Amino acid sequence: MLTRTLLSTTSRTLSHRGFAAAVNPDNGGIVTPLEDFHKSQGGKLVEFAGYSLPVLYNKDNGGVLAEHHQTRERAGLFDVSHMGQIKWHGDDCADFIEKCVVGDVKGLKPGFGLLTLITTPEGTIIDDCIVSRAKEGYIYMVVNGACKHKDMAQFNAELEKYGSKDVCMEYMEETLALTAIQGPKAAEATQTIMPSGIDLTGVDFMQGFDTELAGVPGCRITRCGYTGEDGFELSIPAGQAETVVSALMEHADVDVAGLGARDSLRLEAGLCLYGNDIDDTTNPIEAVLGWTLGGKGSRRRTEQGFVGADKFLKPEGGLMKVSRKRVGIAGMKAPARGHTELYDASGENKIGEVTSGTFSPTLKKPIAMGYVETAHAKAGTDIMVNIRGKMQPAKVEKMPFVTTNYYRAP
Question: Which residue ranges does the record assign to the Aminomethyltransferase C-terminal domain (predicted)?
Fold first, then answer.
């Protein structure tokens, strides 16, 4: 990894390029540091967000369904190296980031993080991301792979406005791998690669720290993920990524899982996929993500000060009314895929459309997420779903569909 010296009273960007030179000739995606590992495990590699990633593994054990159950019941290991990892440095970095995101970054205790949203001047969502206040003057951020370049453009534009202050954005472009181990056995397995003296039972949800993993220095571990299960995201120097994942695979309850299982898991947990369920035409209130701003009277809602705040917050901090809302949908007999039209109970009036849908392996029934007119957004409301030209009855359902198991330290 490249090093650099920070200059005081300056706003600037550093970008480090690492493993991105190679491209998988079969799918055209940039290879991650775990490309060879995926092939050794029978990974079916596809292009996703510009990267070569496994959609599933050909292990004759049930494919996506087996990988889904593996994660819910034991531990699934995912490659999420397509995500963008950014390190922010300087005394003013938290203040600057609060210009770009809706969350209370300054209020984070050192070592803790939050899910937040990057917004446009129109008040819509550029991306959702994890921001962790590693320590005073150092913030670690993970953004979506498909959005990272427009995120960077937004940050650079805001840095130009911010002026000569002490903040530096260091974009770790492919010098770091990122993996996620998720499931009820994730902590037990991850404990086996931790340095002696570190007990993960004391690490809370959304808490993280820099550490060695399987003897590899320069790593970072965060207790989070996007499956609804307990687990960790592991940031690892690219050249040593396979060392760490191979050590995790030695645990009897750990097995690999791909994009297919990750999608069904996150949908069961009621979590948005950027580009499907939220995008730059959606504002946080429509997406029912107002909680990322804090509750009524919270500092971020009253002070505002972030890009686009006036487009969905009232001057006193109240949430503006919206004409549509994101909801869960269940009760139909067949899966409703993206763009499936939704109607009121009479089947006469279109009220919205599905943004994500699948067959839930855990619940053994179709589930979906989508947007409906606000008048029809209450849980329990009867609606109709137009699946391949046939109307099927369904109901608006509260999310998550499956109870989440985020860890809380004793």
Answer: 324-402
Is the residue at 11 inside a domain?
Answer: no
What type of residue sits at position 234? L
Sign for the CA dihedral angle at 199, 141, 293, 380 comes to negative
| Same domain as 140, residue 120 | yes
Using the predicted structure, report yes or no on whether residue 264 has a pLDDT greater than 70: yes
Q: Are residues 103 and 134 in the same domain?
A: yes
Q: Are 179 and 81 in contact, with CB atoms under 8 Å apart?
A: yes
- Give pLDDT tens digits for 354-399: 999 999 999 999 999 999 999 999 999 999 999 999 999 999 999 9
pLDDT value of position 12: 56
Residues in the chain: 410
Annotated binding site: 233
Q: Same structural domain for residues 130 and 250?
A: no
Per-residue pLDDT band at 60 (split at 50, 70, 90): confident
Q: What is the domain range of residue 20? A: 16-81+176-268
Both tokens of residue 270?
């009621």
* Token code pair at residue 160: 């130009």
- pLDDT of 241 over the 70 cut: yes
Is residue 169 domain-resident? no
What confidence category does residue 14 fall into, taking pLDDT thresholds of 50, 70 and 90? low
Distances (CA, A) of 101 to 9, 119, 126, 129, 212: 22, 6, 10, 9, 30
* Cβ-contact 223, 406 below 8 angstroms: no
User: Does any domain span residue 6?
Assistant: no
Name residue, tokens 């937004």: 154
pLDDT tens digits, one per residue of 337-349: 999 999 999 999 9
Task: Indicate the annotated binding residues for substrate.
Answer: 233
Encoded tokens for 50: 């510009």
Nearest to 238 by CA among 105, 81, 374: 81
